[in-house]
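Q: What changes when zinc ion is included in the input?
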Amino acid sequence: MSLMTAMAFAATGPPLLTYHLPPDKYRQAVEFGRRIDLLHFAGVAWDAAVLLLMIRLRIGARARDFAARAARRWTVQGLIAIGILLAITGVADLPLAVYRHHLGLRFGLSIESWPAWIVDWIKAGITGLIPATLLVLLFFAFARKAPRRWYLYAWALSVIAIVAGTFLTPLVIDPLFYRFRPLAQTDPKLVPALEQVVARAGMYVPPDRMFEMDASSKTREVNAYMTGLGSSKRIVIWDTTIAALTIPEIQSVFGHELGHYVLHHIPISIGLTAAGLLIAFWLLDWILGWIVRYRGARWDIRGLADFAILPAALLLALMAGFLSEPIVNSYSRWQERQADIYELEVLHGIIPDEGRNSAKVDQIMGEIDLDDPAPNAFVRFWLYDHPATPGRMLFAQRYDPWSEGKSPKYVK
Ligand SMILES: [Zn+2]
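A: The predicted holo structure follows.
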């Protein structure tokens, strides 16, 4: 190093880390990214085509008539008709799920065998189908008893279901697929390092809210997440992440999840979802009313409370979900950026150069998870729920309110 470069180096620090992959990994990551993105858009089109076909073939009316022959009570008829219709859409989704798992295996991310995967697919289907059938049955009950205001009751019930579902998922659903153990049990040496971060935040997070998940039983991917609500609220770190990272790097991952925890991202997201759903249900009522009036005879739909309307309602819900993706994901990216800021601030003073440490974690995780090094701008806007890895790494290294004389945002 010449004297001039040495002086420049001392003034500016080492050059910024940028996301880079060896040539074969680069090609794989780009190809995997393209296929997964395409699968998403093609999947929505496929699901829409299935529902359109169900409407054209009057599958809704057939399920209703079948249920009417099979049972006398309205409730039982509803369970049969709704169960059949939801199960058809679930099974129609199977080719997409198979292709997704095929990609995971082909690109070396998943290590789950096909038989184990099928068992998981069935488990997920059943645990989704049962509550969904009951929920939709109640929507129909509202439409029957209160045809003018059914959508308000349906909305309120949906919000309750989301809150209950968020609370119950880590307790009831997640353990069906993975094993969760308190970090204090699996990695006792990590606990003081994580407690150091929690103490710097001026917080108290009980050690029994920190879990390790045995992701390595099914995947090579690395990740961590925060989940639950109230007494089920917790931070979960995949065992693959713990195996791939050093203690300061795990502190960095943990700092990000702690950001979600401290900044109440889950309750805020539920609140925003509730607001969005109110608009969606109001629109649904309006458009379904139109369908009954102008397409009812053609599609054999006799009213809002007729089970035969379900495929049309599902198609509208699919479209609403698809069109809201860029809004939901833009908001999610903002929330992720706030968690990143929290991480950089909470680890400032614990780790000498947290910006660089954080960027290193993004590099390691990106390389293992095959993060697309050059994602398409439209895909990034529409689908990315996290900031893309290249920009995220640069942000971490440039975020420096301390030397700029500014006050940190969350952790003073
Ligand atoms: Zn996050």
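Observations recorded in class: DSSP finds 16 helices and four strands in the chain.
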